Amino acid sequence: MARQFAKTELAPIAKEIDEEGRFPWEAVEKMGPLNFFGIQAPRQYGGAETDSISYCLVIEEISRVCASMGLMLAVHNGVVVHPVAQFGNDEQKAKFLSPLVAGEKIGAFCLTEPNAGSDAMAIESTALREEDSYLLNANKIFVTNGGVADIAILFTSVDPGNVKKGFSAILVERGTPGFEVGLLENNCGMRANPVSSIILNDCRVPRTNLLGREGEGFKVAMAALDNGRIGIAAQAVGIAQGALDASLKYAKERIQFRVPLAQHQAIQLMLADMGTMVEAARLLTLNAAHVKDRGGDLSCPSAMAKLFAGRTASKVASMGVQIHGGYGYSKDYPVERYFRDARATEIYEGTNEIQQVVIARELLKRGED
Amino acid sequence: MHIIVCLKQVVAGDRVKIDPHTYSLVRSAESSYINPFDLFALDMAAQLKREHSASITAVTMGPKISEEVLWEALTLGADRAVLLSDKRFAASDTLATSYVLGMGIRKIGAFDLILCGMRTTDGDTGQVGPQLAEELNLPHVSAVEKVENEKGLFRVERISDGFREIIEVSAPALFTVASRTAVRLPGLLDVQDAFNRSSIEYWNLEDLNADAGRVGHLGSGTWVEGLTPTAQKKTCLFIDEDTRQQARMLLSKLIEKNLLS
């Protein structure tokens, strides 16, 4: 179903929206009725409540055709809808979850700042307690979906003197006075996703917008990211599969030395390696999804999946460019877009190096048994 | 209202493999999908379900792998799914297929309407719908675009030779459905529901009380004597003239080929 949607609605526009840096509302509006905005969200709030494997398959199929839309859905579902469903109280779920799940509102996750990213505790955002509200000041950058988001999960500190103790997650709606969307990032890839900065200037939100408890923000962020990494891994698998699809097609069409490229062993070796890497990345990703569905500890499997799938996407897309030769370097063929899009999967939702830190920490924790 | 929709699993055009001995299609999960014309029938059934709170039973004949199309039907609104599957059904032509479908439908029980696709993208005979109507002794209308139901009477519209025909038919009846635009995709919720709530019923020759002499090769009035691929030859003609001349040449070529009448 997701494959069919990607083929009919996204494939015809993927090139154009990348070139124009345009968010395709016409296609996005059709995703709501298909439950793409609440893939795993509770039925009570309109979600499809699928297992994590189905979630990965949807993200993979969308990203296989259009990584920018795969990213939009992975962030919305993985690090916005999921933590609101997990940590929100009933009123918050009724107010925020229902419109997010229906696709009436799009979500964003605001952690990174000019001086804080991988080092989350270095944030400089503040939330001052007032009688019934928080007074928010923040400068959040590289916010995926930032240009179109209606509801943002903001990571800030209610205790400027002790960021760690005061680290909290607060829901903020666009349109609140003081909420400002900054300039869109001029990114190398994922260009149809309006990644932007979000600036909060003396922005007042009710105390009831606090997600979880004060000081629980790190727990919310890590739970969201552990979960979100599976989505990004699935996205990376989709990009790699898309690059492989394009390369297989080209290798059969392009004639060099009087035979199709596919008959040259040098090209076959590359295709074989690409296919094997994609399959390995997919299985690591689905394993992480399976662990999540069983309620197991997600940190290590999701970090491994994201690390390997991100690297695979970059490597496979790069090999795809190589198979295409000069045409691979041209915007006339989609593999060039996959090559640019793939690179981001090694950076966002935790860089490769952060995944390695998580993996090593988990491995060392296990001891010598 | 109870609607029965007949479906067929077909093999993707670019992945057709023919068994060199039996001349029958070789199917695999990757290369098979629901006949696109049957989706129109399913879509019409789903529309009638919304309008008249009908129930839908999807039925297909084929090997176990054909259950894929029944799952798809369940995601698109079918309430019940029946697979008519038996090795002895293999190599059935349209006559034997219609007999098996007819026996399956008799076992399913009372119904108001049977909907079929007009034809399939593989066999492309367009015979099964009308033959099934004959088998079950039902009135049938082909290429139906629109159905209304009033007091057990169907009022249907079909386009034929440039005319819009309006026909009244008493229930139960069989219609083959004309192409429709924008067939709805199921949502993830529909997919979840189909898999959580439904199962597929498997019926073989004995379950149907069918006559073994009327199914498969034995029951077929036709059989394939031989099969050779035909290559479609394409030739490109380049017209190297000025624009006006090019237009003239193109026009005369089109008229010559009888493509403008």
Structural features:
heterodimer, A: 369 residues, alpha+beta, Butyryl-Coa Dehydrogenase, subunit A, domain 1, Butyryl-CoA Dehydrogenase, subunit A, domain 2, Butyryl-CoA Dehydrogenase, subunit A, domain 3, 3 domains, four-stranded mixed sheet, 10 strands, globular, B: 261 residues, alpha/beta, Rossmann fold, 25% strand
Instruction: Calculate the mean pLDDT score of chain B and round it.
Output: 90
Q: Please tell me the total number of domains of chain A.
A: 3
Give the CA-CA distance, first to last residue of chain B: 45 Å
The share of residues in helices of chain A is 40-55%
From the coordinates shown, what is the CATH architecture of the largest domain in chain A?
Answer: Up-down Bundle
Spatial strand sequence of the major β-sheet of chain B: 9-8-7-10-6-1-4-5-11
Structure description:
The complex is a heterodimer of chains A (369) and B (261). By secondary structure, chain A is α+β, with helices and mostly antiparallel strands. In chain A, 51% of the residues lie in helices and 15% in strands. Chain A contains twelve helices and ten strands. In chain A, helix 5 (67-87) packs antiparallel against helix 6. Chain A folds into three domains: 2-105, Acyl-CoA dehydrogenase/oxidase, N-terminal domain (Butyryl-Coa Dehydrogenase, subunit A, domain 1), CATH 1.10.540.10; 108-213, Beta Barrel (Butyryl-CoA Dehydrogenase, subunit A, domain 2), CATH 2.40.110.10; 218-364, Butyryl-CoA Dehydrogenase, subunit A, domain 3. With 261 residues, chain B is α/β, with parallel strands linked by helices. Chain B has a single domain, classed as Rossmann fold (3-Layer(aba) Sandwich), CATH 3.40.50. Chain B contains seven helices and eleven strands. In chain B, the strands form two sheets. In chain B, strands 9-8-7-10-6-1-4-5-11 form a nine-stranded mixed beta sheet, sandwiched between helices. The N and C termini of chain B lie far apart (45 Å). The model of chain B has no long low-confidence stretch (mean pLDDT 90). Chains A and B meet through loops of A and helix 5 of B.
